[in-house]
Design a protein that fits this description.
The structure is a single chain. Helix 4 crosses helix 7 (124-147) and helix 7 (124-147) packs across helix 8 (149-161). The protein is built from eight helices and no strands. 2% of the residues are buried. It is mostly helical and 163 residues long.
């Protein structure tokens, strides 16, 4: 059942950039202690006649934890697939990646840690700068298409000559 649901979700959304159903975005299964400690306990409880009701109850807890995790993953998968089909989100993510290249180079060189990189690329100022650059890119693209290349260059020269 679990494998079928994950496979069917992948077929609906495509590959979705390698999203792994069954594991949340940090790669951790929620309530993993219930699962890891519960499975051996269920096996030991099933060997004794008196503890079989506890084994059934513990197995239900394990199934409940797995179902909750699968439900959360299906919601995340649906959200990711919707974002991957939205061209505006892809445009914004593309500009975000391009503008984060200098920070990534310093991170790869070991100048600062992943925590600092995340802080620099996820703060409000960086997101604001990314949105300004993407809006300017859209406006300049539309103006170039409407005016034509030569008239757009003349417009830019007149605009910058004023300053």
């Amino acid at each position: 059942f679990f494998t079928f649901q994950a496979v069917s979700k992948r077929k609906v959304c495509g590959k979705c950039s390698g999203f792994n159903a069954g594991i949340n975005n940090r790669g951790i299964i929620n309530n993993y202690t219930i699962i890891l400690t519960g499975i051996p306990q269920v096996q030991s409880y099933l060997s004794e006649e008196i503890l079989r009701s506890q084994a059934v109850q513990l197995a239900r807890y394990i199934v409940d934890a797995l179902l909750r995790n699968i439900g959360d993953n299906e919601k995340q998968l649906d959200n990711i697939c919707k974002k991957l089909k939205n061209p505006i989100v892809l445009y914004r993510l593309g500009w975000n990646q391009i503008l984060s290249i200098p920070f990534l180079i310093f991170f790869w060189l070991g100048v600062y840690t992943k925590k600092i990189l995340d802080f620099l690329t996820r703060n409000f100022l960086f997101k604001f700068l990314t949105s300004i650059v993407s809006i300017l890119g859209i406006i300049s693209s539309i103006m170039t298409i409407v005016l034509g290349y030569e008239e757009f260059i003349l417009f830019l020269k007149d605009f910058f000559d004023r300053f």
